[in-house]
Amino acid sequence: RPLTQAVEATHEAPPAPLQRSRSIVYGLPALFSLDSFGSGFFVQSLLALWLYQAFDLSVTTAASILFWSSIFSAISFLLAVPISERFGLVNTMVFTHLPANIFLMLLPFAPNLATAVSLLLARSALSQMDVPTRTSYVMAVVTPQERPAAASLTAVPRSFASALSPLLAGYLMSLSAFGWPLLIGGALKAVYDLLLLAKFQSVRPVEEAGAPALTQTE
User: What's the CA gap between 216 and 218, in Å, rounded?
Assistant: First the structure.
């Protein structure tokens, strides 16, 4: 399937520093870093450790749960395409990612393993739809010449941010088995979703001019 028209450039464009799109792109790294910082609170290893501590699982059971969680996440990548075509890139990013983060925040309160697994799988089915749409959005709202600079500016801060939070998450888990990293990580990512919606829902690629909005954009 072809990418959006804004990404499918008809000619080779030499890379150039950010100019025309500077005001748009400069607002994205901080938001993406907040999302990545929140994600670091529940990397797979910490999530497996929490499941083990909270429900006294065997290694085999925990691995099976994470296997199916990964399968559901992979499916969410595929679903991102038709949903973004219908509702637009930013709407898809926010209105799938936000429920996923709410499910994550509810995990520490799960009364039993069945509830926890249900919440985890529901989150996984929604959580990755923002990944391809985020990349497509960044590439679509800048000029072809600015895409390399925009990609670097939005990706590098995310990498640094995601490296910090696992340290805090490990410390919190050493203090309590409640699941504070899941609650904090989900809350940070939910704040990211709301800020992204507020700041960028009205900044759409040209081909999305007719896409229906889930909330008022004017």
Answer: 6
Does the pLDDT at position 216 exceed 50? no
For residue 61, count CB atoms less than 10 angstroms from its CB and return exposed for 0-12, middle for 13-18, buried for 19 or more.
Answer: middle
Distance of CA 2 to the CA centre of its chain: 23
Distance CA 155, CA 157 (A): 6
The identity of residue 75, as a single letter, is I
Q: Which CATH class is domain 22-208?
A: mainly alpha
Domain definitions of the chain by residue range: 22-208
Q: Of 168, 135, 134, 132, which Cα lies nearest the Cα of 39?
A: 168
- Tokens coding 184: 């904090």
- In the chain, where does DSSP find H-type helix? 22-25, 28-39, 44-55, 59-87, 89-106, 113-127, 130-140, 147-175, 180-200
> Average pLDDT of the chain?
85
Give the per-residue pLDDT at 83.
Answer: 93
Backbone angles phi, psi at 12, to 5 degrees: -75, 130
Q: What is the CA angle 60-63-65, rounded to 5?
A: 110
User: Tokens at residue 1, please?
Assistant: 């399937």
Confidence of residue 146 (pLDDT cuts 50, 70, 90): confident
Residue 182: HSE in the Cβ half-sphere, 13 Å Cα cutoff: 27
